[in-house]
Amino acid sequence: MKQLIEAIVKPIVDYPENVKVEKEESINRIVYKLSVHPEDMGKVIGKQGRVAKAIRTIVYSAAGSHQKKKTYVDILD
């Protein structure tokens, strides 16, 4: 999932070297924390959150078939 998130986000940002994805796993859920350069925040979120929602939709559908835990994607400031 980490590679999937990076593959989606890196082409749309101006600073791909600053894209970082961290994984936190607990008993019943997995949280992927995405951080990008402050200037790229608007590109990752998109107008009215459309890009962020699309990223989450792709990751959730891919994770649903591979993992039995609930998966979340957080975009950090």
Automatic annotation (TrEMBL):
Cell location: Cytoplasm
Q: What GO terms in the biological process aspect are recorded for it?
A: cell wall organization; peptidoglycan biosynthetic process; regulation of cell shape
Q: Which UniProt keywords apply?
A: Cell shape, Cell wall biogenesis/degradation, Chaperone, Cytoplasm, RNA-binding
> In Gene Ontology terms, what is one molecular function of this protein?
RNA binding
GO CC terms on record? cytoplasm
Pfam family name, one: KH_KhpA-B
Task: Indicate the transmembrane segments per the record.
Answer: none
Classify the main location: cytoplasm
What functional role does this protein have? A probable RNA chaperone. Forms a complex with KhpB which binds to cellular RNA and controls its expression. Plays a role in peptidoglycan (PG) homeostasis and cell length regulation.
The UniProt family comment states:
Belongs to the KhpA RNA-binding protein family.
Q: How does it assemble?
A: Forms a complex with KhpB.
The record ties this protein, via PANTHER family, to:
RNA-BINDING PROTEIN KHPA, UPF0109 PROTEIN SCO5592
- The name this protein carries in UniProt is RNA-binding protein KhpA
